[in-house]
From TrEMBL:
<keyword id="KW-0597">Phosphoprotein</keyword>
<feature type="transmembrane region" description="Helical">
    <location>
        <begin position="73"/>
        <end position="106"/>
    </location>
</feature>
<dbReference type="GO" id="GO:0016020">
    <property type="term" value="C:membrane"/>
</dbReference>
<dbReference type="InterPro" id="IPR036890">
    <property type="entry name" value="HATPase_C_sf"/>
</dbReference>
<dbReference type="InterPro" id="IPR011495">
    <property type="entry name" value="Sig_transdc_His_kin_sub2_dim/P"/>
</dbReference>
<dbReference type="InterPro" id="IPR003594">
    <property type="entry name" value="HATPase_dom"/>
</dbReference>
<keyword id="KW-0472">Membrane</keyword>
<dbReference type="GO" id="GO:0005524">
    <property type="term" value="F:ATP binding"/>
</dbReference>
<dbReference type="Pfam" id="PF13493">
    <property type="entry name" value="DUF4118"/>
</dbReference>
<keyword id="KW-0902">Two-component regulatory system</keyword>
<keyword id="KW-0547">Nucleotide-binding</keyword>
<feature type="transmembrane region" description="Helical">
    <location>
        <begin position="41"/>
        <end position="61"/>
    </location>
</feature>
<feature type="domain" description="Histidine kinase/HSP90-like ATPase">
    <location>
        <begin position="263"/>
        <end position="359"/>
    </location>
</feature>
<dbReference type="GO" id="GO:0004673">
    <property type="term" value="F:protein histidine kinase activity"/>
</dbReference>
<dbReference type="Pfam" id="PF07568">
    <property type="entry name" value="HisKA_2"/>
</dbReference>
<keyword id="KW-0067">ATP-binding</keyword>
<feature type="transmembrane region" description="Helical">
    <location>
        <begin position="118"/>
        <end position="139"/>
    </location>
</feature>
């Protein structure tokens, strides 16, 4: 039963090596060679079977072959054995095959006569099999070294990801602590409403940066899916506002991804646009809808729109003259990324963030 199971496993590995599903799978299988390193008896049995098959095939083909081809089936047997089970069993197969060929197929047959022709044929055989065994040994040594290096690289990658996530966790916690300190400081300013409001806004922004930094960055430095990023951000802002009478829609090109360096500034700008829509456009408990859309526009720039169906802008409103700290911060952050931020009246209010093309990646 055990031998049958081992043979079945070996057959499965051979099948995997010939499976055209991809070079990566085949290379990983090759790195496991030689087989049966911990099962020497199984390797010897399979080696003898391969040699026996090679001898039988050579005997069957003997009437069809002209003189001078004593090793035509033995060379493949030696190569297959050494490839699958290592140079040690390959060497044993080479000796057995050489002896069989010398006895049966090198004239004069049925004997171990060392004539000049037999000596030349045996020398040629030794040269070929030694070369083959050396090449197989070097290949398998290189594969083992490659497997060890891949394992080291995998371990280093796991360690890097662990350290990265720990760093992100600590940075986020520190930001949350800073936000809590501002909240505590606010309690000391019970008589100054403007100062309390300013501390509230600062604490909220720090808390927002802390929360998004946990999920925005990837240890590999990959760009972030913009749809997922904006949808999660906007829903967090809406949930934090405690508003259940506002419907949120987020839509855009699913293939667009945001570069890591642009994540936090963009999050702050969009969060400010959402907060402005909730606080002003849909103020005083007015139910409504906020639609967040994004996509590439003419010229290749990215445009993010946050549109509400609320009260709209007051007459004569100019963003440049606004005293809102949040809007000034949004404008400054947009310019810092080489983009722009503006408000427009369109059946309510639409906040428009334009970012340069190099901050986004198109494609999965």
């Amino acid at each position: 039963m055990t031998a049958a199971l081992q043979a079945h496993n070996a057959a499965d590995m051979i099948k995997a090596a010939t499976d055209p599903s991809g070079p990566a799978r085949s290379s990983r299988w090759i790195e496991q060679l030689p087989l049966a390193r911990d099962r020497p008896v199984f390797g010897v049995v399979v080696m003898l079977a391969i040699v026996t098959i090679a001898w039988m095939l050579r005997a069957l083909a003997d009437p069809l072959l002209p003189p001078g081809f004593p090793y035509v089936t033995f060379f493949p047997a030696v190569i297959i054995t050494s490839f699958l089970f290592g140079v040690r069993l390959g060497s044993a197969a080479a000796v057995i095959c050489g002896m069989l060929a010398w006895y049966y197929f090198i004239p004069p047959a049925r004997g171990f006569s060392l004539t000049r022709g037999a000596g030349f044929a045996l020398a040629f055989y030794v040269f070929v099999v030694v070369t083959d065994l050396a090449l197989v040994h070097w290949m398998q040594s290189a594969n083992r070294q490659l497997a060890r290096e891949r394992e080291v690289n995998r371990s280093l990658a796991d360690t890097r990801e662990l350290l990265f996530r720990e760093l992100q966790h600590r940075v986020s916690n520190n930001l949350q602590v800073a936000a809590s300190l501002l909240t505590m400081q606010k309690r000391q300013l019970s008589s100054d409403k403007d100062a309390r409001a300013a501390l509230d806004e600062a604490g909220g922004r720090l808390a927002l940066i802390g929360s998004i930094s946990r999920q925005l960055y990837d240890p590999s430095g990959a760009a972030q899916p913009l749809l997922t990023f904006l949808e999660q951000l906007c829903r967090d802002v809406l949930q934090a506002s405690g508003r259940s009478d506002v419907v949120l829609d987020v839509a855009g090109d699913e293939q667009l991804r945001l570069q890591p360096d642009a994540a936090v500034p963009t999050a702050l700008i969009v969060a400010e646009a959402m907060a402005n829509a909730l606080e002003h456009g849909l103020a005083h408990g007015r139910a409504g809808r906020i639609a967040v859309t994004f996509g590439l526009v003419a010229g290749g720039d990215l445009e993010v729109r946050v549109q509400d169906d609320g009260h709209g802008l007051s007459s004569g409103f100019r963003l440049e003259d606004s005293e809102s700290l949040g809007l000034r911060i949004a404008t400054m952050l947009a310019r810092g990324q080489g983009g722009s931020f503006r408000l427009a009246a369109d059946h309510g209010t639409t906040a428009i963030l334009a970012l340069p093309r190099h901050l986004v990646v198109s494609g999965a």
